[in-house]
Design goal:
About 50% of the residues lie in helices and about 10% in strands. The protein has about 550 residues and is mainly alpha-helical. This is Leucine--tRNA ligase.
């Protein structure tokens, strides 16, 4: 066979390459039966991303005969024609099989310097190979999907039985340095050894994990590595401080609302981080097992107030966090495990922590609480600034300050009126299987036929309905049909009342009252500010706060 390149080819030395008609061996990857086996193997593999899967499928579609030999250079001699070498992309496509026995042939020396052999090749059996093979995962670059990795699939299916076919490829991109391409010529370059010397092994691993998931090019950022040093150092200092002040921690089983929330967050971290590691999503694992978990700890510290943190929960947090970060920062984890927690053995042998099933309702309730506190704080600042402006214009001398303020928090736990009509219509027009809604025209027609549509002021109501319908549609598509429920899955008044002390501390209030917006007597407590309840009526998930001087 003979084929010419499609365009001019330049060598690495800068010389133009010319076509030479020479003898050549080809692998017939276009053989239909062989390709069918490769497709079968691919369909059973874990490829970790759709982009990787599509890349392999595309390659199987166009791959034809491949020139697999060359006459000089490094490589393995072709057994049936020793004059030629196997070219590099075709070579070593099943060398993973050699890993299963290499330790015998190299006498535990991975570099092959030890020439003494405990066992000769002819003395070996299949036991060691069959114990380890097939490989569950091979990690490689995305640029090899279109050749070397696809060849690996083909060659495994040609040589090995189905139960020894590859089970997974995890492909990644190249690595950038501080958002720019690594290049020796520009000086934007680091070796692994240089990075370890500059940042430490764990900070380097931390920054690499944070560099990105998927097949896109990863981005190693110096600032992230430096921040990792600070984060890990601060965490060690906090653990030492907590261990030294153990007597000040609250004892007994976890019992408060804050305890339950924190315990739930730990359970969530254990389960989600495990899933992220299994998917080789190291950035997500770092987020759920480090960033999010530490944020939950910080929130717990603030929520506990004068009662203090629960000792058992704090100890569990330290134990769990240490195990979760071990794959990324093993040296830090071993220091905490053995030197601070005084545990026996190595943390790498401690196993994955156990966890109960997460309470999604409790998680939603806590998010509601935290979001409400943020909203109330903004409303208070707005009201303080508003009262000061009014005072400058000749209003009464008494202004709303941040001292001795009472917060009236009004809650409406269920949608009613036209909002309830809209939600019921949307729920009836929502396909749970596809996560999509019926056409807008069909939804509008149902609205017109509803009791809200029969209202004499329908045009006015419609102006209110359309933005609400649009918002709820987007929310349902994002989180599911539960967004269309008339009530939240927890009692809002109960959550706010149980955390009234936290609300007072977080916002700086003297007194907090949690009230029903449907209670006439409760509305009367707002006095002249009760009109705010009409201007900004509370709804499920959106309480309205009014602040008064005591």
């Amino acid at each position: 066979m003979y084929s010419e390149p499609e365009k001019r080819v330049m060598s690495r030395s800068g010389d133009e390459c010319v076509v030479a008609l020479t003898d050549q061996w080809y692998l017939t990857y276009d053989d239909l039966e062989w390709k069918k086996l490769a497709e079968e193997c691919l369909s059973q593999m874990n490829l970790y991303s759709d982009e990787t899967k599509h890349g392999f499928e595309h390659t199987l579609g166009w791959l034809n005969r491949w020139a697999c030999s060359r006459s000089f250079g490094l490589g393995t001699r072709i057994p049936w024609d020793p004059e030629f070498l196997v070219e590099s992309l075709s070579d070593s496509t099943i060398y993973m099989a050699y890993y299963t026995v290499a330790h015998f042939l190299h006498n535990e020396d991975m570099y092959g310097n030890n020439k003494t052999h405990r066992i000769r090749p002819e003395e070996m059996t299949d036991d060691e190979f069959t114990y380890w093979y097939p490989f569950d995962l091979r990690v490689s670059g995305k640029d090899l999907i279109q050749n070397h990795l696809t060849f690996s699939i083909f060659n495994h299916t040609a040589i090995m039985a189905k139960h020894h076919w590859p089970r997974g490829f995890r492909c990644n991109g190249h690595i950038m340095l501080n958002s720019e391409k690594m290049s020796k010529s520009t000086g934007n370059f680091r070796t692994l050894r240089q990075s370890i010397d500059e940042f430490s092994a764990d900070a380097t691993r931390f920054s690499l994990a944070d560099a990105g998931d998927g097949v896109d090019d990863a981005n190693f950022v110096f600032e992230t590595a430096n921040s990792a040093i600070l984060r890990l150092t601060k965490e060690i200092a906090w653990i030492e401080e907590v261990l030294a002040a153990e007597a000040s921690l609250r004892t007994g089983p976890p019992s408060t609302y804050s305890d339950r929330v924190f315990e739930n967050e730990i359970n969530i971290a254990v389960l989600t981080t495990k899933k992220n590691y299994e998917k080789c999503m190291f950035r997500e694992a770092l987020k759920t097992g480090c960033y999010d978990l530490q944020a939950a700890r910080d929130e717990y510290r603030l929520s506990c107030g004068s009662g203090g943190m629960n000792r058992d929960l704090v100890w569990r947090f330290i134990d769990v966090q240490t195990r979760l970060i071990t794959p990324i920062c093993p040296h830090y984890a071993e220091h905490v495990w053995r030197e601070l927690l005084r545990k026996d053995g190595l943390v790498v042998n401690a196993g994955w922590p156990t966890a109960d099933s997460p309470d999604e309702t409790l998680k939603a309730a806590n998010k509601y609480l935290q979001d409400s506190i943020v909203l109330m704080r903004k409303l208070l600042q707005k009201q303080i600034m508003g009262s000061k402006k009014s005072n400058k214009k000749g209003a009464p001398a008494a202004t709303l300050t941040e001292e001795k303020i009472t917060g009236l928090i009004y809650v409406n736990e269920q949608f009613d009126g036209w909002k309830a009509e809209c939600l019921n219509i949307l729920k009836s027009k929502f396909d749970r299987n596809t996560g999509t809604f019926a056409p807008d025209g069909e939804i509008l027609e149902a609205l017109q036929k509803s009791s809200a549509g029969q209202d004499a002021n329908f045009k006015k109501v419609q102006k209110l309905c359309m933005p609400f319908l649009r918002f709820k549609k987007e929310e349902a598509i994002a989180i599911g049909v539960q967004a269309l429920n008339l009530k939240l899955p927890f009692g809002e008044i109960e959550v706010l009342q149980e955390n009234s002390d936290l609300i007072k501390r977080q916002i700086g209030l003297e007194l907090v009252e949690i009230l029903s917006a449907n209670d006439h007597d409760a509305r009367a407590k707002a006095g002249s500010f009760s009109s705010l309840l009409d201007q900004n009526p509370p709804s499920p998930g959106q309480p309205t706060a009014i602040f008064l001087l005591r």
